[in-house]
Design a protein that fits this description.
By secondary structure, this protein is α/β, with parallel strands linked by helices. The chain contains three helices and three strands.
C-alpha cells in the first residue's frame, strides 16, 4: 500500500487530483480475539488514509475506505453474503462524487450479518 501511494502521489499532483480507494473489512470494526492481527492491519490502513486525507489540505487527494462484510465469492461462498457487485457499486458511489466531496468510510454488509 505504501509503495502504491508513493507511486501515485506524483501523478495525482501533476493532474491536480486523485482518489485512493482501499478495501478493508468489517473484521477491523467488530474485533474478535482470534483475528487481532488481521483487524490491526485493516485499522492501520484506515488510519493511514485518514492521516493522508488530513495532510492533503490542498484538495488534490481524496481517500475512501470500503469495509465489506461477508461477500459471496469462491473463497467465501456464504449463503447470506452480499454479491461482489454490491461492493463495486459502493466504490463507484464514492468515486462518482464531485471532486470537492469525499466519502471517507463505507461499511457494506448483508443485513443478516451479526
Amino acid at each position: 500500500m505504501l509503495y502504491g501511494i508513493a507511486a501515485a502521489m506524483p501523478v495525482f499532483r501533476s493532474q491536480g487530483e486523485g482518489h485512493f480507494v482501499t478495501t478493508l473489512s468489517t473484521a477491523g470494526i467488530k474485533i474478535v480475539p482470534t483475528m487481532a492481527g488481521y483487524a490491526a492491519t485493516k485499522n492501520a490502513v484506515r488510519t493511514f488514509l485518514e492521516a493522508l486525507r488530513q495532510e492533503s489540505t490542498d484538495g488534490v487527494v481524496r481517500t475512501t475506505s470500503i469495509s465489506p462484510g461477508y461477500v459471496r465469492t469462491d473463497f467465501n461462498p456464504t449463503d447470506f453474503g452480499i454479491p461482489p457487485d454490491a461492493v463495486a457499486r459502493a466504490i463507484a458511489f464514492a468515486i462518482d462524487q464531485p471532486h470537492d466531496v469525499e466519502i471517507g468510510d463505507i461499511t457494506i454488509r448483508p443485513t443478516a450479518q451479526g
